[in-house]
Amino acid sequence: MGTEEGGSQYHSRALDRGLLILVCLAGSVSGSESLAELHALTGLPKSTLLRLLVVLERREFVRTTNGGTRYRIGHGVVGLAESYRRGVDIHEAATPFLDRLVEETDQTANLGVLDNGSVLHVLVSEPKRSLRFRSTNGTRDAVHCTGLGKLLLAGLPAEAAREILAEAAPLERRTGKTITDVGVLMEEIARIRARKFAVDSEEGARGVCCLAVPIRQSGADDTRWIASISLSGPIGEMTGESRDHLLNALGRTAAQMGESAELMAALELSQWGGRDR
Hints:
The protein is an alpha+beta fold. It has helices at residues 3-26, 35-42, 46-58, 76-87, 90-105, 147-154, 158-168, 182-195, 240-258, 261-269, and strands at 33-34, 62-65, 70-73, 108-115, 118-125, 140-141, 198-201, 208-215, 227-234. The N and C termini lie far apart (55 Å). The protein has a six-stranded antiparallel β-sheet. The protein has a three-stranded antiparallel β-sheet with strand order 1-3-2. It folds into two domains: 3-81, Winged helix-like DNA-binding domain superfamily/Winged helix DNA-binding domain (Arc Repressor Mutant, subunit A), CATH 1.10.10; 89-269, 2-Layer Sandwich (Beta-Lactamase), CATH 3.30.450. Residues 12-75 form the HTH iclR-type domain.
């Protein structure tokens, strides 16, 4: 092995170990780790850890606390995170998933989030046929009479959902099937929370049905719903066996989206991050 090749492997190994340290510190439950704790977490010799920690501290990716006995993430990572945030394109990350869903179902697909008490349509993908539900990226809708809205409310603690509905009262009656009583709506939201899908059966518009399921980050708390996707179309095409097929397609797509690290990061870092959630 040549000297140059051996040096390259050494530096690659050192870089890998340095990144491992940062990952361990970023995931620290207490917010900081001692040298002994890092040794247990990484399996690296303490002498190696000390050398790498000195470099990381010099570059401000790590800082010491408790008189130099504990280590935590430093502010040097902020610039990297901000650079990543500026480059995140949620539409680019989500479009392939919604387009495939539309191709499979021939219905309108929608990615939505809860933002300041209303549903924000982040991304819409429509089928090519003339008879279809129409929506537009960036538009808003009510939470009480839409599949997306009810599903997203079900992802909140019950009191938080009730507070949003109370602030929106009196709830607009758009059709004869719109639920306008907050108490009745909260019972519906509890059922949605249990079954993990929502149905808007002509509650928002006559002749239109919407099915919605949550997007949950892979491996995360099952009750934490970061966003929702839905399918909307003529009600006659979304009942019985057709409904089962559409819900299965939605569930598969939501699971695939939850496994996309890029999309999950885009949703977490979006301007809606943390609002109403």
